């Protein structure tokens, strides 16, 4: 599913955000670009996702220009497994791919080990054996970001991380201040699910859900009310305002926390 969001500036070329996903219940990738350059946020899960993402990129840059980088908001499987097919469809072996911390790499390896043991890559119609950690060396491609990111002339790409363990152990957001665009990864959903597992072990404990609620509460204070949300699940923000969307997420998590964990602490 593809959708363009156009943001304008009187001083710079128009910035465009394109959402890519293969179905309404799959994760989103975002292409952030102007007419000269761009980058990608998250890679999706299915083999087809990476292919569609690459084709969408080529629609905008048919001259073989590549993404300046790919940034992963977090390292769950539904955000990274599309990388092999993206590279394959672009006919390249390397594009800079970044996460915010060593902890995010460690979390990636935790999940890759689980997927390696389960090994759905041989039998699934949505996955491909070329995505298997046995065949694609994710650690050779995905590195910790160690320098500031600047795009579109002098536009600083703000990476916001160091959140307490919540939906994932290590999460990041991307904020582009001139257009007030916040790419939230899985920490915020719009017209989609916020997944809470009935497990009190890694990574869905009551404390983590409590942390998650706290992160959301902080967003309302930290960002302007005119901020636009671009999540890794669901739609881009529509009729609901930034504050209304955050409040809806908090209410859902508070309800699910009480239901799943029978928690009496609803703060």
TrEMBL record:
Residues 26-233 form the Metallo-beta-lactamase domain. This is Metallo-beta-lactamase domain-containing protein. InterPro entries: Metallo-B-lactamas, RibonucZ/Hydroxyglut_hydro. Transmembrane segments: none annotated. Pfam families: Lactamase_B (PF00753).
